[in-house]
Structure formats: C-alpha cells, structure tokens
Amino acid sequence: MCAYVYDREVLRARAAALKAALPAGAELLYAVKANGHPDVVATLAAATDGLEVASGGELALAQAAGARQIAFGGPAKTDASLRAAVAAGALVHAESALELHRLSHIGDVAVALRVNRRDGGLPGSHQMAGAPTPFGIDEAELPAVVALARTLPHIRLIGFHLHAVSNNLDGARHAAFVDDALRWSVATAASLGIALEYVNVGGGFGVDYTGPATFDTAPLAAIVPPDGVRLVFEPGRWLAADAGWYAAEVLDLKHTHGRWFAVLRGGTHHFRLPAAWGYSHPFTVLPVPDWPHPYPRPSVAEVPVDAVGELCTPRDVLTRGQWVDRLRVGDVLVFGRAGAYGWDISHHEFLRHPPPQMFVV
Predict the structure, then answer these.
(1) Where are the domains of the chain?
(2) What would be the CATH architecture of the domain defined by 242-360?
(3) What does pTM read for this prediction?
(4) What's domain 8-241's architecture?
(5) What is the mean pLDDT of each run of 10 residues along the chain (361 residues)?
(6) Which one from 312, 325, 349, 354 is the annotated catalytic residue?
(7) Residue 2 annotated to the active site
(8) Beta-carbon contacts of residue 156 (< 8 Å; ≥ 6 apart)
C-alpha cells in the first residue's frame, strides 16, 4: 500500500485564511508548481484570484481549471509556451531582454519585469534574489531593459515581479520585505517612466516540517498598497502543504550496525522533499491489525527507527531516528504536510516501481 491523500476542504480553508490576512485589495494567486494535481489546481483556482504557472504544461492545467487570471513566469520559457501564454491572455513575468524580443514577435501582452534586486531582503531555504541566480533581471541592468521594452511593439510594461526567497518562516520580516518592495517599485517606476499598475511580491511563506514554528500572516494586514497598484502574492507551499498526506506500508524491519530500519513500499521517488532538503520528516504510525500470512509478523517496540524507501540507494531516506512505541511489518507510516513539493518534484521513474495511489477527498 502506498498513496497520497489530498483534502479539498483544507485547501479551501487555507486559501480563505490567507485571503483574510492579506492587505485590503491584495490579490492571491496559487503557484501551481507546489502541487499540480488537477483536482488540487481546480480547487485552488476557485478559492483564489488565479494561478501562477511556470511552464506550458502548468499553463494548460490552469486553463483547464478555469483560472480567473494566469501569471506566467520562469527563467526558461520556450517559444511554444510563450505563444500559448499570449494566446491565453496570461500576464508574463519576463526574465530577460531576449524574452522581451521574443514576446514582441508573438502578439500583444502585458509584462511585469522580474527583477533580481541588490538586496534579497529575506531569510529562507532558497534565495532567489540579492545573490547570483538565474532568476530575473539584475537590478543594475534594469534601465537598459526598460528602455528596450519601450521600443518593442506589442509589449505593455505594467510593473515588477519581485519574488525573493522560498520557505521564509518570519512573518514580520516578510511584511517588511513587501513594504520595501512596494516603496522600491514606486520609486523605480517613477525614475524609469513606468506607469506602475502591478507589483507581484511572489510567495515564499514558509512551513516548518519538523518543529512548532508557524508563519505569522498577521503583519501582512498592515501593508497599504499604493493607489492604483495591484499588489499580488503567489504562494504555493503554504496553501497546499497541510492539505496532503503521504502513506506507505512497512515491508520489512531490519537491524544493521546498531540501527533499526523500516523499509517502505515507497520512498523518495514519491516524496523527495526530505532527502532534497536534508531533514527528517515526522511520521505517524497507522496500525494495521490484519496479518494474513502463515509466518511470524516482525515487530519492534520502544526504539528509534529510520524510515527508508524501496530504492537501491542509501539516500532513499524519509526519516532518521524517530521513536516508535510499536511498529510492525504491515503497518502504515503516514507523513503529514506532504501536499506541496512532494510527488511533483520526485524522480518517479527511478527503478520503475508502481506509483502511489492518489485520493482526493
């Protein structure tokens, strides 16, 4: 047994809670990259103001979900995906001067320039700005890119995209970042002659997988967007993580070199995030009373256990050293907060094991 379970009501509740916490008039988009299951995307398309996508495939998902608005970003857009975005009426977060040239040969399109500012301004697990990354236009090059945009047909420059970090847990600092991003956008637009209509501050709202920390959304409410400017947030993880669970059956219990291992029907090819980030994801033991076999049922009690997968690599580890009161072969381990960056980022085809079942409730 191996499965993902996604809960629509949790998705709706998370979206409603965040919309209530955002500044008056702010818009909320769901970043589809966090979880692209069609039912998840459709649920959040209805519960938010629209969707943010980063590929032609995600764009097709957003259209199928009936998104009220679509923002299209990402540093490596193909010509086919740009044509599809323009045809869909999506707003494009342009990443370079070359991308503006390409768009100008396709058709009329509203564009916000993604800028890698000098100061990223936020802590988090993945820095996107304020550092050398492939994301956005270097702030020093912005005047030249804006000047180019003015010369290109079909380009309507409306503002900036300023996503800076992934998985920040400090809500107060995030609110300060948004305030600073708005001030910077107003001043920069004025200096470069842009009629500012749109500031997208990205997502990056964090989730603590191993401890009690929470991202405090309350400080966001005090932000006051400038008149006539659409302030847009586009989180993914914060909306989807708590709405998903990954469950995997224990296939074997092994003791080697002083450690106990629970070997699962599943692993990092289904739920890669713990291995990718190097942390131990907590699990809950779901006891399964039935044991239909004629041989003894292996079990352990009051020991720490490593939860490992079925792949032929020692890096296929979901959890290290979690204490269990009792665990038996045939029981199921349930990993909570698996609704974002779980199945979607995993290397599904390695060893060609069957995929997990998918349930949406």
Answers:
(1) 8-241, 242-360
(2) Beta Barrel (2.40)
(3) 0.95
(4) Alpha-Beta Barrel (3.20)
(5) 97 98 96 98 98 97 98 95 97 97 96 89 62 82 96 97 89 94 97 97 95 94 95 98 98 98 98 96 98 97 98 96 98 98 96 96 98
(6) 312
(7) no
(8) 108, 109, 110, 111
